[in-house]
Design brief:
- The protein is mainly alpha-helical.
- Among the domains are: 97 residues, Arc Repressor Mutant, subunit A (Orthogonal Bundle); 97 residues, no CATH class.
- Helices cover 68% and strands 4% of the residues.
- The chain contains ten helices and four strands, in the order ααββααββαααααα.
- The strands form two sheets. It has a two-stranded antiparallel sheet. Strands 3-4 form a two-stranded antiparallel ribbon.
- A hairpin with a 2-residue loop joins strand 1 and strand 2.
- Helix 2 crosses helix 4, helix 3 crosses helix 4 and helix 6 runs parallel beside helix 8.
- It is globular, with a radius of gyration of 25 Å.
- It starts with 19 loop residues before the first helix and ends with a helix.
- It comes from Streptococcus pneumoniae (strain Hungary19A-6).
- It holds the Pfam family DnaB_2.
- Belongs to the DnaB/DnaD family.
- This is Gp19.
């Protein structure tokens, strides 16, 4: 993934204040504070370069308090702005993670993906070059010792190449199987996929080591959301990726902890409310 220092800009259209949502915000008493926080929010998302998902690392996500500190704004103001953004669909919270569902409006997604693909290809070529150099060096040393050892070494290399070829074939077969099954699962989910976005999902398995069960779970979560979309699906996967999840068991454990924490917070809120009632005799 591109580092934070490599992303220097975001896109803001000149007619941003003609947008219906921005017009409604501009008509509110707290418009100045809300608009400033929105600009700070999309700028932060651009710096993070995590497809609109506000995460610092795989184990740390931005909270309301952290945003207030980062933006140098009162916590109540930040929370009020986030509530407005959520109401208008400009911001969504998934398992406690804040994300911008329409992030492609503010970032050149195609350009970023092209750069990432170029980096992957460059790294692959570099690894292949190093491998060839190492093989040549080993072959030269062997030639200086004796011919029969060279033959043995060559046979060993052939076997190693055969193993790598078999591994590549196995990976490609699994990829075809996953691709076919994933298409079937997505058919009735309400999520539209292009060939490019379909490949992007497969990369979470091939490049990031996620299990296919995790893709299915992400699709289920997205289908059950208020407004299913590909960006919503990617936000879930990016959240798991940041947390280092590679198995469905880790996802289940994370869900369990989130539900327990939410239940505990609700219980604390009820306790606090009852204490106030008892104190004032309500």
């Amino acid at each position: 993934m591109l580092g934070m220092s490599e992303i220097k800009w975001i896109k803001i259209k000149t007619d941003i204040f003609d947008d219906e949502k921005m017009c409604l915000i501009d008509a509110s008493p707290d418009r100045d504070a809300i608009i400033v926080i929105w600009i700070k929010l999309i700028t932060l998302a651009g710096k993070l370069n995590t497809k609109g998902v506000l995460t610092i690392s795989k184990n740390i996500v931005y909270t309301d308090e952290m945003l207030a500190q980062t933006f140098h704004r009162p916590l109540n103001t930040v929370r009020m702005a986030l509530e407005v953004f959520e109401k208008f669909g400009m911001v969504e919270k998934i398992d406690g993670v804040i994300m911008l569902p329409n992030w492609e409006k503010h970032q050149n997604i195609d350009g970023m993906e092209k750069i990432k693909e170029q980096n992957r290809n460059r790294a692959a070529r570099h690894r292949q070059k190093q491998k060839l150099l190492a093989q040549n060096n080993e072959s030269n040393v062997t030639d200086n010792v004796m011919d029969n050892v060279t033959v043995t070494h060559g046979n060993a290399l052939d076997k190693e190449l055969d193993k790598e070829l078999d591994k590549d074939i196995e990976i490609n077969n699994n990829k075809v199987m996953i691709s076919s099954s994933l298409s079937e699962n997505l058919k009735n989910s309400g999520i539209h996929l292009t060939d490019k976005s379909h490949q992007q999902l497969l990369d979470y398995v091939g490049l990031d080591g996620m299990s296919f069960d995790m893709l299915n779970r992400a699709v289920e979560k997205t289908s059950g959301s208020h407004k299913p979309s590909f960006n919503y699906l990617i936000a879930i996967l990016e959240s798991w990726k940041k947390k280092g999840f590679t198995s469905i068991e880790q996802v289940d454990e994370d869900d369990r902890k989130y539900k327990e924490g939410k239940k505990s917070r609700q219980q604390n809120d009820k306790t606090s409310e009852q204490e106030v009632r008892d104190e004032w005799g309500f």
